Amino acid sequence: RIDGKRLWDSLMSMAEIGATPKGGVKRLTLTEVDRAGRDRFRAWCEALGLTVRVDAIGNMFARREGRDPNRLPVLMGSHLDSQPSGGKFDGALGVIAGLEVMRSLNDLGIQTEAPIELVNWTDEEGSRFGHSLMGSGAWAGVYPLEKVYGLQDVEGVSVEQALTAIGYKGEHPAKPFPADAYFELHIEQGPILEKEGRQIGIVTGAQAQVWYDAVVTGQDAHAGTTPPSARRDALVTTARIIDLVDRLMRARGEDGRGTVGQLHVFPNSRNVVPGEVRFSVEFRHPDFAEIEALAADFPRQAEAIARDGGTPLALTELFRLPAQPFDPGCVDLVRQAAAKLGLPAREIVSGAGHDAVYVARSVPTAMIFTPCKDGLSHNEAESIQPEEAEAGCQVLFEAVLARANR
Amino acid sequence: RIDGKRLWDSLMSMAEIGATPKGGVKRLTLTEVDRAGRDRFRAWCEALGLTVRVDAIGNMFARREGRDPNRLPVLMGSHLDSQPSGGKFDGALGVIAGLEVMRSLNDLGIQTEAPIELVNWTDEEGSRFGHSLMGSGAWAGVYPLEKVYGLQDVEGVSVEQALTAIGYKGEHPAKPFPADAYFELHIEQGPILEKEGRQIGIVTGAQAQVWYDAVVTGQDAHAGTTPPSARRDALVTTARIIDLVDRLMRARGEDGRGTVGQLHVFPNSRNVVPGEVRFSVEFRHPDFAEIEALAADFPRQAEAIARDGGTPLALTELFRLPAQPFDPGCVDLVRQAAAKLGLPAREIVSGAGHDAVYVARSVPTAMIFTPCKDGLSHNEAESIQPEEAEAGCQVLFEAVLARANR
Ligand SMILES: NC(=O)NCCC(=O)O
Ligand SMILES: NC(=O)NCCC(=O)O
């Protein structure tokens, strides 16, 4: 069995890096804080005798050799980057649990048939450069590397500059290599498992998404002298588009998701009618047909609102992602592990995007969810119980071991 | 007559300080850039033999003595601070025109009966610390000095710290002293004079205003996993309040003004339902009764919207300003000057707040407006013609001279 206390201690140790006063974590991708997290992770891996390699987008692979030189590696992992006001477990759980699997294999003196590789994917969150699942997406070939290198944060720093600055632009090519399977443990980030009292979510796939960048252009004008008829207020138009996003979401019932999460006003002065607003829009749904419908309706309706306000809208679709079913064989290994351990489990579709979604395009993949308190995530108050982390890690251990020795 | 070319050259010289690539000015109050503007202004004044004194809120007074030691000074001036993306003339015109009046008096060897003082008021714009007309308001006793010292910008720097940092926390008390009159030349910042082909606006008073700070509190949550029923989205609520502000403005016709100019989203990440939004709200109207009605209706209706969204609203009224009529005698001097010079003129109510509004509470006051291109202000494209600056300055000269020698 894995060591639950050691797992928890390492989770807490990682959570010190970028710890926020409110008990959360701010470890934005490719920052100095992220570098510190990566360095600690690398040191832990090397202490176990694992060989660490880094690819051109900063993804880290820590390898434990198997007995059979002809077998493809079994992968497991997740991400160490966080939201600007994120929690301790989103991503970190999957990486640190993978580390605990490696430690337990060493402790138990187990040599697996196939090699095992533990992965830390770069920039899963997408909050800094605008593409979630960036590292796994570049690896999977979904985002051309040159395009990804050129993406910039709000300060104009590019992905390539940031990778170089923290010393994690690696020498290995960022592209799929032959692998036998990929398993990712993650917190659910939603309320379902907790509400039903299940310890394990057997993730059968992930929902569809579409993301946009929007810019509304009006005209800066004096708030005191500019009469209603002469105003072209970019923020009033944006407000109506935000309301539209919310209405389009609610029209789809409890399965709908529609969010404006990021927004910047220019010049952002109290007594100036805003001349420009830049903001993000994203929609999600388990059914790709609904996302296709939204990708047709939303731009049309938003542009009509912008036209009414005399404030043109420029909308850029950043990516559109179909729903991704996971590999039945791998999903079944998760189901069997939970059953063997007697853990209450249920099948579930992921509401969040995960690196597993892109890995699944070239490698048989499954995910394991554990509950989190009140379904809260992307929030400093994100919280799980040590027993929940331990149960999830034990399922990961069983599934990976079964696959590597099959 | 004043020297129109010298006036324009000094305007352009001041506009170099904080010049922006788009031809505007960013000379935010109490920054290093503002210090540079103040230093240049002080040097110009001292070169004319004027005595410069600075008060406790950084207002600068440059004095030219009169013949009669018993006469109270005639004041003129405006402000050198700008919006974050402001123009070259908003404020600077009134200060530099006052300087040109002083230079012309020297050139013409005129000794006036009363002394004349040229004023540069601190932080007229209000965009950094949230109180427009801050320096004149503190001087007039409208804002208690201790309260003003404690105001902070978004970075947490206080007014007192900023004053000390740039060396403009002066020794003279910031309070009204006996003065005979105050004249302020300013661009109209609206479209009326230009549309009617008038060179001079005889400003009879300024409209009423009310300003608020608003904070909407929701809950940070994952954009992909949080179903509509579980969301408490602070930005969706804010969007509806922005729409309310616009509707309340338009319900009052062309005299209504309602603006949300500044807004910050937290945590401001693409895939996080926003947990907090902070924003400004302001309303203006020539009739104070309408402002009183808005100050009763808006908080009630905004709170109802916030309640519906499950996202509480905290609203702080920053200030409420009645309409301010100017002194009939001073206004008449402006009218006479325009007539004497044969300049097409009309009476006008100011849509913007001006330092003159607070000065008028203790000193007989009038203002002179000049047209500006397309009525644009609080915009880098703000523009006036050299002849317009010259005409406004000539009216200022005549009015001040007439008052000082009456
Ligand atoms: N798991 C997770 O929070 N991913 C971030 C990408 C997203 O789903 O928005
Ligand atoms: N004149 C001017 O732009 N004043 C700034 C204060 C305001 O009216 O908002």
UniProtKB/TrEMBL annotation, chains A, B:
Binding of Zn(2+) 2: at which residues? D90, E125, H378
Q: Is the Protein biosynthesis keyword given for this protein?
A: no
Q: Which residues bind Zn(2+) 1?
A: H79, D90, H186
InterPro entries reported in the protein's UniProt record: Amidase_Cbmase (IPR010158), Bact_exopeptidase_dim_dom (IPR036264), Peptidase_M20 (IPR002933), Peptidase_M20_dimer (IPR011650)
Q: Which UniProt keywords apply?
A: Hydrolase, Metal-binding, Zinc
The protein's GO terms of the molecular function aspect are: hydrolase activity, acting on carbon-nitrogen (but not peptide) bonds, in linear amidines; metal ion binding
Domain Peptidase M20 dimerisation: start-end pairs: 209-306
**Cofactor-binding details, from the entry:** Binds 2 Zn(2+) ions per subunit.
Q: Does the keyword Glycoprotein apply?
A: no
| Cofactor list | Zn(2+)
Xref: PANTHER family: ALLANTOATE AMIDOHYDROLASE, ALLANTOATE DEIMINASE-RELATED
- UniProt-listed NCBIfam families: hydantase (TIGR01879), PRK09290.1-3 (NF006769), PRK09290.1-5 (NF006771), PRK12891.1 (NF009527)
Which protein family is named in the record? Belongs to the peptidase M20 family.
Record's protein name:
Zn-dependent hydrolase
Could you tell me which species this protein originates from? Roseicella aerolata
